[in-house]
Write a structure and sequence with these properties.
307 residues, alpha/beta, Spermidine Synthase, Chain: A, domain 2, Rossmann fold, 7-stranded mixed β-sheet, 30% strand, globular
C-alpha cells in the first residue's frame, strides 16, 4: 500500500519513539518562546505540536480538556472567578465557560503568536471562547501576573494547562514549591487547583511524582488521576490540589447531578463513572505514588529533557 506521508517522531525515552504519519504541515513557526507546529494527521486530524511534544489533536482534545477542567470545577462550590495558566488553544477556556456560575475567566498565556495561531486555525478547539465577554486573554508572564496582579484569597479555581517543564522553556518556574505557595495564597479558603502533570505510567512517572510530592508540602488534599489520551498513546496524569474538598468523596451519582445542574452544553467524555474511573488508580500506580522524590524548588527545578 502506497503511503505518501511525512513522519513525526514523538520521543518518549531514549529507546522509545512513537511515529505519526502526517499529510501536510499547516504551520511551522518559532515564536520567542517555543517551536510551534500544526500538522494534518490522517488519523487524528489537526495535530498541535510544541517543542516536539504533541499538545492536542482535533480528534481527541476533548478527552484531555474535559479531564483537566471539570473534576476541579465541580469540586468547587460555586466557581465564579477562574484563572487559567497557559491553555493557548482555548479549549480549556471553552470547558470552563460551560459552567453557569462563571463571572470572569482569565487566561494567562505568554505566547501571543500561539494565541493568534489558535484564533486562525484552531476554531474546533476554542469554539469562540477566546472572544467570550466573560473571558479575558492576557499575554503575560504567568508567574509575575500571579505574584503582582492577583489578590490573596480571591480566586475560586486555578487551572494550569502549561507545556511541559523543559529546560530553558517558558514553563519550568511554574511547577516549583514557591509558585505553588503563591497559588495556594491566591485561592479562596475553599479553592481548588488543577493541573496537567505529565505522563503517568509504570515506566514514566518521576515528573508526576515530583509535582505531586511538591504540592503535598502545601495543600491538605492532593489527588492524582489519569486517563488514556489516544494521540499521546499513553496515560496522562493530572492532579487536583484542594484546600478543603476531596474529589474522592464525590460519588458517580453526585457528579452526574452536578453536571446536570451546573453545566451548559454537552460533555463528550466526562461523567460520574469516568470521574470514579480516573481517580481509581491501580495498585502498581498507587505504589509508585507512595515513593519519595525530589521537591521542586526555584533553586532546584526538575526538568524534562528536550525532545
Amino acid at each position: 500500500m502506497e503511503k505518501n506521508y511525512l513522519y513525526f517522531h514523538d520521543f518518549f525515552e531514549k529507546s522509545e519513539e512513537h511515529i505519526h504519519g502526517i499529510e501536510k504541515i499547516l504551520v511551522d513557526l518559532r515564536t520567542p518562546y517555543q517551536h510551534l507546529q500544526l500538522v494534518q494527521s490522517p488519523i487524528f486530524g489537526k495535530m498541535l505540536i510544541i517543542d516536539g511534544d504533541i499538545q492536542s489533536t482535533s480528534k481527541d482534545e476533548y478527552i484531555y480538556h474535559e479531564s483537566l477542567v471539570h473534576p476541579a470545577m465541580l469540586l468547587s462550590e460555586k466557581p465564579e472567578n477562574v484563572i487559567i495558566l497557559g491553555g493557548g488553544e482555548g479549549a480549556t477556556l471553552r470547558e470552563v465557560l460551560k459552567h453557569k456560575s462563571i463571572v470572569k475567566a482569565l487566561m494567562i498565556d505568554i505566547d501571543k503568536d500561539a494565541i493568534q495561531i489558535a484564533k486562525k486555525y484552531l476554531q474546533e478547539w476554542h469554539q469562540g471562547a477566546l472572544e467570550s465577554p466573560k473571558a479575558k486573554v492576557l499575554n503575560l508572564n504567568a508567574r509575575k501576573f500571579m505574584e503582582t496582579q492577583v489578590s490573596t484569597r480571591s480566586v475560586d479555581v486555578i487551572i494550569s494547562d502549561l507545556t511541559e517543564p523543559f529546560e530553558d522553556g517558558p514553563s519550568y518556574k511554574l511547577f516549583t514549591k514557591e509558585f505553588f505557595e503563591i497559588i495556594n495564597d491566591r485561592l479562596k479558603d475553599r479553592g481548588v487547583f488543577a493541573l496537567q502533570a505529565s505522563i503517568l505510567r509504570i515506566t514514566t512517572f518521576k515528573m508526576h511524582l515530583s509535582i505531586r510530592n511538591t504540592l503535598k508540602k502545601i495543600f491538605p488534599v492532593v489527588r492524582s488521576y489519569y486517563t488514556y489520551i489516544p494521540s499521546f498513546d499513553t496515560t496522562w496524569g493530572f492532579i487536583i490540589a484542594s484546600k478543603k474538598y476531596d474529589p474522592l468523596n464525590l460519588s458517580a451519582n453526585q457528579i452526574n447531578s452536578l453536571i446536570s445542574e451546573r453545566i451548559e452544553g454537552q460533555l463528550k467524555f466526562y461523567d460520574g463513572d469516568t470521574h470514579i474511573q480516573m481517580l481509581s488508580l491501580p495498585k502498581d500506580i498507587k505504589l509508585i505514588l507512595s515513593e519519595d522524590s525530589e521537591i521542586i524548588t526555584d533553586q532546584n527545578p526538575v526538568f524534562l529533557p528536550r525532545k
